[in-house]
Write a structure and sequence with these properties.
The protein has 28 helices and 13 strands. By secondary structure, the protein is an alpha+beta fold.
């Protein structure tokens, strides 16, 4: 008991220190809700450069009390400003007019076509008051230019823009004015998303469980695979609605019928559930991930624009990259019967960059909540329906949380009880899981389906495994990289060549049918060529493409000199293993330039590299677990198939890698790595295992203290780490095959 108490005290102390001493709080530490929000559009124009000591001003009227944040879209005409400052002043009426906010902005921090924001103490009496924002440059060097973006629309009540007191006549400032949210608003936002997420998870679980009860399945299979069956059935139902053009009626009627059948099936087979062993640890992990995700992203009121990284093309939720809206926008295209080719999407991302399982699931639940995803095609990003996007987030949280069920499922098949529980413990405190569970990306859903497919491969059910890997491809096209490892696994575990060939054929046929259906769906609904999605990983690195045209991709690939291709593969390998700072390497790439530009930074390591994705300590555990398992041929095959082969496919197939794709592909192979990390962890003594999990917990707290500097999130992460310590101590104390001598560990592997 003493090591457990010491470990929890260490985790708590580190969490408290990081929260109070971990640097300046990020904007997420203070919950904001939008008071005034202006979106960008095709008709936006920048002002003429504003010279030193000249003033740009914008008048507007606040709608609510407590304004505490302003951000505006700036322009530097393509160059950085090396020195100087911009004085931002907020004026309120009075006799004379008084300045209530004065803030100095370092000109060096202003990027071209990026938002510039600043916070200030809440302004009392701002509701209905005519306010004025003044921006005055000081000490800008000769040749530097500073200006702001204007929209030609009249957007502010009693609003106008001025330069040195004279009307510009060109439009009004593109900006967002926010206020500090009340605690009740934050709690309400959290509760809405949390209860909807839990409801969606239970719904998918019930649909799948009702279907699985018709077959002779053990309790573990019933509980761990049910969500995958529910996802497949609901996705197929919604897909039929999209293809037939009757999305609403098919989903409403079909959903009602499925729900009634599920209730009837569960009631008729209730005797089977009396002796069902509920995996409490796995259920707890799912609930914990959903809860942490809701705490991280809870935003009251309207969804604020708060991601300044991509200038006028940016997302609508703090910390949400722009591609997080792809499921919403693709659903809006389908629901509103728009032409996908006419939709101008974010320049870096396109509808054809994703397969659309999450979109289909979202369309299904939109019917239950009577939501039609809004879309007004007047610019690259539009104001989205707040509640509609909350529903998408709730769905994503529920679906992403299932990944821990996949880890537990594979662990139940090839590990003993001790190692299986330890796999869960290290999984939920690895940075990659929490970082991705709270986004509307479908990569964790893809990872869950991949893990179910691995379980079926281990059970020698090759056709079903192929179908699951195909369904994973529907969730995200990166599944095609790990499917190569799955095919090799099916071949390698055959008793002879004839059996290996038979295994591979069964897997390939099932995979091809499901993946082919996905390509057909994308071609029919979005007019996307089937080859585009297969070439997506190769295309994703070519930064100047504006469309996923297979002919263009292959033409550029063939035209690349062999030496450049070699340098790119070396670069991809480096990004796969080392920090995401590698993305700053300029093109064309050369090996010497790659290594010279590498930077070691703790935060970036823990977010942008393979061992950072797994966790620096957990990465070492994974490697050691593979070494310990080498005596068991099937385990070695598993490591090669689902870690080494996908990594090699990634290095060879990715194009000019210029973003986080090294981190992205890790999201579907890391769950398999957790299995081997548990093998190593189980080989330690109880005290050593607790110490290692404590170290992993501290590592995660360091990695996540910067982006998630929020009291509720800090408390949640601390509780999660403490739970991981308790689970580890409990599993180690049970003594189910715990290896303490350092001998090679040989996990079970069914025949």
């Amino acid at each position: 008991m003493k090591p457990v108490i010491i470990a929890i005290l260490v985790v708590t102390a580190v969490s408290v220190v990081l929260y109070f001493r971990g640097g300046a709080p990020s904007p997420s530490a203070v919950h904001m809700t939008t008071d005034l929000l202006i979106s960008t559009g095709h008709d936006d124009v920048p002002t003429e450069p504003i010279a030193n000591l000249h003033t740009f001003s914008q008048t507007f009227v606040g709608r609510t009390d407590g304004l505490s944040s302003i951000e505006f879209l700036a322009a530097t005409w393509g160059a950085l400003i090396p020195s100087g400052s911009i004085t931002a002043v907020v004026m309120m009426p009075g006799s004379p007019q008084r300045a209530v906010v004065v803030h100095e902005i370092d000109a060096r921090s202003i990027l071209d076509n990026h938002y510039v924001g600043f916070d200030f103490p809440p302004i009392r009496g701002s509701a209905g008051a005519p306010l004025q924002l003044l921006l005055t440059p000081h000490d800008l060097p000769a040749g530097s230019r500073f200006s702001v973006w204007l929209t030609r629309r009249h957007v502010y009540r009693q609003g106008a823009s001025f330069v040195d007191g004279l009307p510009t006549g060109a439009g009004e400032l593109v900006m967002t004015v926010s206020r500090k949210a009340f605690a009740s608003e934050v709690v309400k936002s959290f509760c809405i998303v949390w209860f909807v997420s839990i409801s969606i998870a239970v719904y998918l679980f019930a649909i799948g469980l009702a279907i699985l009860t018709m077959f002779n399945s053990d309790s573990v299979t019933l509980l761990y695979i049910s969500p995958a069956i529910g996802v497949a059935v609901i996705g197929a139902l919604s897909g039929v609605g999209v293809i037939t053009g009757h999305v609403r009626s098919v989903n409403l009627v079909g959903g009602a019928v499925l729900l009634l059948l599920a209730i009837a099936s569960l009631a008729r087979n209730r005797h089977r559930f009396k002796g069902l062993q509920v995996p409490a640890a796995s259920i707890f992990c799912c609930l914990a991930l959903i809860t942490i995700s809701c705490a991280i992203t809870s935003q009251p009121g309207e969804i604020p624009l708060a991601d300044p990284r991509d200038g006028p093309w940016r997302s609508f939720v703090p910390m949400y990259p722009a591609d997080g809206l792809i499921p919403y926008e693709s659903a809006s295209i389908i629901a509103n019967k728009l032409a996908a080719r006419d939709f101008m999407f974010e320049p870096k991302w396109q509808i054809s960059d994703r397969t659309h399982l999450l979109t289909l699931l979202y369309l299904h639940f939109c019917q239950w909540f009577r939501i039609v995803p809004t879309h007004v095609p007047v610019g690259p990003w539009e104001i989205v329906d707040a509640y509609g996007f909350w529903l998408l987030r709730s769905l994503a949280f529920a679906a992403n949380s299932f990944v821990v069920l996949g880890i537990a499922l594979v662990g139940s098949a090839i590990l003993n009880r001790t190692a299986s529980r330890m796999a869960l413990a290290v999984a939920v405190i690895a940075p990659f899981l929490i970082l991705n569970a709270c986004y509307t990306w479908p990569k964790m859903l893809c990872a869950y389906l991949v893990m179910v497919g691995i379980y079926l491969l281990v059970q020698r059910k090759f056709a079903l495994a192929g179908a699951l890997f195909g369904l994973a491809y529907w969730a995200h096209p990166f599944a095609n990289l790990i499917s190569l490892g799955a095919l090799w696994f099916a071949w390698a575990i055959g008793a002879d060549r004839r059996a290996s060939f038979r295994n591979a054929v069964r897997f390939t046929v099932a995979l091809g049918l499901v993946v082919g259906a996905g390509g057909l769906f994308n071609g029919t609904v979005f007019g996307v060529k089937g080859e585009s999605l297969y070439l997506y990983p190769l295309d994703s690195g070519f930064p100047y493409h504006t469309t996923n045209d297979p002919e263009v991709v292959l033409r550029d690939f063939r035209a690349t000199p062999l030496w450049d291709l070699f340098a790119i593969r070396l670069h991809n390998l480096a990004v796969f293993l080392f920090p995401s700072e590698m993305q700053n390497v300029s093109l064309p790439l050369h090996p010497g330039e790659i290594w010279d530009r590498m930077k070691w930074n703790w935060f970036r390591i823990c977010l942008g590299s393979l061992w950072g994705t797994v966790g620096l300590i957990t990465f070492v555990l994974t490697v050691w677990g593979i070494v310990l398992s080498r005596a068991k041929r099937e385990m070695l095959v598993l490591a090669v198939a689902f870690i080494a082969v996908p990594a090699l496919a990634y290095i060879l197939w990715m194009g000019y890698l210029s973003d986080f794709n090294g981190y992205t592909v890790c999201q579907v192979i890391v769950p398999a790595a957790m299995i081997f990390a548990a093998v190593a962890l189980e080989s330690f003594s109880r005290v050593t295992a607790i110490a290692v999990v404590t170290a992993v917990s501290v590592e995660m707290l360091f990695a996540l203290s910067i982006p998630y500097h929020d009291a509720a999130v800090a408390a949640g992460l601390t509780a999660l780490c403490a739970a991981a310590v308790v689970v580890t101590a409990s599993a180690a104390r049970s003594g189910n095959g715990l290896v303490t001598s350092g001998a090679a560990h040989t996990p079970k592997f069914p025949r």
